[in-house]
Amino acid sequence: MDALVTLHNVGKRFGEKRVLEDFSHAFARDTLTFVEGPSGVGKTTLLRLVCGLEQPDEGRIERASGLRFSYAFQEDRLCENLSAAANVRLVCADRASGLPEELLSRLGLAGHAAQAVKRLSGGERRRVALARALAAPADVLLLDEPLTGLDDAAKERACDLVAEHLAGKAVLWVAHGTDERRPFSGYDVVVVR
User: Fold this and answer.
1) Rounded to whole angstroms, how far apart are CA atoms 98 and 78?
2) Predicted structure pTM score
3) C-beta of residue 23 within 8 angstroms of C-beta of residue 46
4) CA distance 193 to 181
């Protein structure tokens, strides 16, 4: 397996607070890695380092040439005045495709596709953000607590949909506990301390 992103002895700090130290790991295509650990230890920072939004203070990061990243941030980062479908369509390679509506329907939002995001609940907005991340053509998919605010049925639909989008990608999923990875037994878990 060829790695898409490899971290070599990476360290990162913010002021006096060190969040990662001597961290090494390779993320390859066709893998799902759950990133776990207590709050404040650098899980989100790790995702930001992987895609280049942050730079390491120590160590180095190698990325395969021409990588495309897709990211479902902790904050939804949606365009408030656009509809749910229009938010997803922003990242689609084929803007005329029915992919946004299909993804939203699979996530239980078929009746909300034309609704402005600012009128959606927190859980609905979270699902729109996940649909947008899944719709983007990407080699590396970064999911930062993608199930926050979702009920059990919505979590199950979201996990099923993510499972269908694993092929050909390196997927990094920040989770707070084992519940989120239960449907994905057999995948890698990286614990950040």
Assistant:
1) 19
2) 0.93
3) yes
4) 18
Mind listing the pLDDT tens digit for each residue in 57-97? 999 999 999 999 999 999 999 999 999 999 999 999 888 89
Residue 102 confidence (pLDDT): 97
CA distance 33 to 192: 12
**What CA–CA distance (Å, rounded) separates 54 from 70?**
15
Q: Phi and psi for 191 in degrees, rounded to 5?
A: -100, 120
Which among 170, 147, 144 has a CA at the least distance from the CA of 159?
147
- Give CA 51 to chain center in angstroms: 11
CB 188 within 8 A of CB 25: no
Q: 66 Cβ partners below 8 Å, 6+ apart?
A: none
Local confidence band at 130 (pLDDT 50, 70, 90 cut-offs): very high
**What residues does 10 pair with on adjacent strands?**
23
CATH number given to 1-68+138-145+172-193? 3.40.50.300
